[in-house]
From TrEMBL:
Transmembrane segments: none annotated. CDD domains: RGS_RGS10. It comes from Mesembrinibis cayennensis. This is RGS10 protein. It holds the Pfam family RGS. Coiled coil: none annotated. Residues 154-178 are annotated as: Disordered. PANTHER family: REGULATOR OF G-PROTEIN SIGNALING LOCO.
Length: 178
């Protein structure tokens, strides 16, 4: 992780690379099959986010997903002071003309720090939607064809077809077929 990452996670510690497990384990689709159904599903899975970031890094557009994640986190921010701090951080990191990880959004030239004076949870929503659509109709479809995705899918399939998984499945089917 670069210094920029450390700086970013200092303000958004909720967004990290740690091994997270999706809480919705009751859903039938998981892993790559779930990621392939929609960008929303991919972004809900910490492992999916990790792989997507890896892919976007190679495409030099990781800032898009980082901006989207920061906006999601920002919506949950409580208190005007915290909101102002995080809004400023998002602005300085992604939106200002001097931003270190500038995202490309419509109306960028008209954006300035005055938007930070009256922060509200959905203040970045329009910009976040633009970036979401950019990812959805551009990088997401390429991600599904990428080696990062396909190799992860292959290793998942190998795990499912491993002898241990087979015997567990057979044991389970014996239990239910009594």
């Amino acid at each position: 992780a670069s210094n920029e990452d450390g700086f970013f996670f200092q303000f958004f510690p909720e967004i990290n690379d740690s091994e997270g497990h999706p809480s919705s384990s009751h859903q039938t689709l998981k892993g790559t099959s779930k990621w392939a159904t929609s960008l929303e599903n991919l972004l809900e899975d910490p492992e999916g986010v990790k792989r997507f970031r890896e892919f976007l890094k190679k495409e030099f557009s990781e800032e898009n997903v980082l901006f989207w994640l920061a906006c999601e986190e920002f919506k949950k921010t409580q208190g005007k002071k915290q909101m102002q701090e995080k809004a400023k951080e998002i602005y300085m990191t992604f939106l200002s003309s001097k931003a270190s990880s500038q995202v490309n959004v419509e109306g960028q030239s008209r954006l300035n720090e005055t938007i930070l004076e009256t922060p509200h949870p959905l203040m970045f929503q329009k910009l976040q939607d633009q970036i979401f659509n950019l990812m959805k109709y551009d990088s997401y479809s390429r991600f599904l064809k990428s080696d990062i995705f396909l190799n992860h899918k292959k290793s998942e399939e190998q795990e499912e077809n491993s002898p241990e998984a087979q015997t567990a499945a057979k044991r389970a089917s014996r239990i239910y077929n009594t």
